[in-house]
Specification:
Blueprint lengths: L1 E5 L2 E4 L4 E8 L5 E9 L6 E6 L6 E3 L7 E6 L4 E6 L8 E10 L5 E5 L3 E6 L1
Parallel strand pairs: 2-11
Antiparallel strand pairs: 1-3, 3-8, 4-5, 4-9, 5-6, 7-8, 9-10, 9-11
């Protein structure tokens, strides 16, 4: 399984970006889980998660009302729409996916990350 993020970049505060996470390879039984971010000197934190059907989402308090996670299962792609960006949103954003084997073992996959930089 390969996860490739795109859409990051440099944006001014108040601006918007849309991140994409495309999965390829052995995507059978693959679940796209969500988006995480890691700022310099900080631990990786959850940004947003989404269920397989897309019917349920959850967000970190710091991004509620500004970010929206979605998915297109026909394309094995997950998105993160980021609006009203703030300098504190600056981080490397990575997507997470997992495969649960028939035996119950969960295999976790991460993308390489995409840099988001918000200038003040």
């Amino acid at each position: 399984v390969q996860l490739v993020e795109s859409g990051g970049g440099l944006v001014q505060a108040g601006g918007s970006l849309r991140l994409s996470c495309a999965a390829s390879g052995s995507t059978f039984r693959l679940s796209l889980v969500g988006w995480y971010r890691q700022a310099p000197g900080k631990q990786r934190e959850l940004v947003a998660v989404i269920t397989d059907g897309g019917g349920s989402t959850d967000y970190a308090d710091s991004v509620k009302g500004r970010f929206a996670i979605s998915r297109d299962n026909t394309k094995n792609t997950m998105y993160l729409q980021m609006n009203s960006l703030k300098p504190e949103d600056t981080a490397v954003y990575s997507c997470k996916a997992q495969v649960r084997s028939y035996g119950g073992t969960v295999y976790v996959y991460w993308g390489q990350g995409t840099q988001v930089t918000v200038s003040s």
